[in-house]
Structure formats: C-alpha cells, structure tokens
Amino acid sequence: MTDVLLVDRAEGVATLTLNRPESMNSLSIELKEALLDATRDVSGDPSVRAVVLAGSGRGFCVGQDLREHVSLLEAQDPSPLSTVTEHYNPLVLTLARMPKPVIAAVNGMAAGAGAGLAFACDFRIAAKTAGFLIAFANVGLTLDSGVSWTLQRLVGLGRATALSLLAEPITAEAALEMALVNAVVEPERVLPAAQELAARLAAGPTAAYAAIKQSISYAASSDLEGALALEGELQVAAGRTADHRNATAAFVAKQKPTFTGR
User: Fold this and answer.
1) Fewer CB near the last or first residue (10 Å), C or N of the chain?
2) Which burial class, exposed, middle or buried, applies to 230 when counting CB atoms under 10 A from its CB (0-12, 13-18, 19+)?
3) Averaged pLDDT for residues 64-73
4) What is the pTM of this model?
5) How many CB atoms lie within 10 A of CB 89?
6) CATH class in words for 206-252
7) What are the start and end residues of each CATH 3.90.226.10 domain in the chain?
C-alpha cells in the first residue's frame, strides 16, 4: 500500500487513514486508487468485521486535489472529467454496500468529495473542531461522490438542497443538530471513539448487520411490498446462521452471546 493511505488491522477492525496531511488529505489520483483498492480488499476480507475511515493531520478530507485537477485540465488531459465514474462512484458504492459497519472519524474539515465519503459511511464521529462543506457549487460543479443520494437521506430534501446551493460551512454542533453526525467529541478522542465503536460492532452479529444494511438500503427506494419481501428473504437467511442459533441458546441460558459473523 502506498504512503498516501495507511491501513491498520487489529482485532477485527481495519482502519484506513488518508495520509496527505500537507493538503488536508485532498484526493489525488494516487490516493483515490489506493483507497478504492483498500476498501474493496477489506470489504471482502472475512477477518475484518468493522472499518474505520480516518484522516491524518488537521483535516479529514477536503475533496478533489484541485492543484492536480487544474494542472491536468491545463494539459488537456481528459482524466479529471472521468474521475467521477472511475473513482468516486465505485468508492461510494463500496463504502455504502460494505457488508460490515463503517465509521468515519471526522477529525477536521470534510468538504466536497471528502464529505461524500463520510456520508457514505454508516456512522460519523466528529471532532468539536470539525466541519462539513458541500463545496461543489463554489467551484462551478454539481454534486458527486453520492452526495445527491446520501445527504437528503440524512437531513431531508429541503435542508440538503439549501446546504448544496449555498455551500456554506457546517459546524460540528450544527451537524449534530441535523443528525449529519452521530456524536461530537474532543479532537483527541475522535479516532479512539471511532475505533471503540468499531470494536463493539466487530464483536457483534456482523452477518445480521450486513442484512440490516441491505434491507434499509433497499427499502429507501422500494415500496412497502418490496421491502417486506426482502425482509422475509433476509430473515430466513439470518435465521440459519450460527450467530442466531448461538444467541437464542445464550438468551435461554441467560448467558451473554458470542458472535462469529457466520
């Protein structure tokens, strides 16, 4: 793995740390490709039961590396105009469809595609000094990195429209009030808090978590009949897992269950 992305695995938790602190972890082509490879890897790794996405230095991720973007545009290189389909779309799909919980540890500013990556995670733990910026309109661009889909589901259509058109910074406190983040903590607690949550989830019924995520995602754009049908299919599969059998036996025996994700 390249130095622009740090990958750590410990006790079922994989921590992916964007590591371009000199540019507030802006997304160069190298970082986007490394992150896409790493997310795909941990998604398919059965030893990884929860994932933390973090940023090094003062920022979480300020989105596209605009210096690289401008230089490529000036060189008439077409790659900046294809990065949405080549990088951002598969990145967001991999994060959102990860069959295990994903927590964003937002230590600083999350702007543009950086905010999009955080929104694609299941949980967001933010520092008191962190912030979000739906910055696309400020550089004459439309939404990408899944923001058109994720943001309105997190905060509602009207608020998502206002945040996107006005492109004004959102403080951590405001993000908590509008349920854009799950918790706000002291800056030095962001990564530990995210990893503690990840460890708690990694010890849980991860097969059930995957089914729950699939069910919620499907129901977001389905009618009730379709949602009920999928719930039935997934519940049959979940009922056949060792986790379910062990948990129900532990309940009857008044013991604490142990989950293996199978």
Assistant:
1) C
2) middle
3) 78
4) 0.94
5) 14
6) mainly alpha
7) 5-202
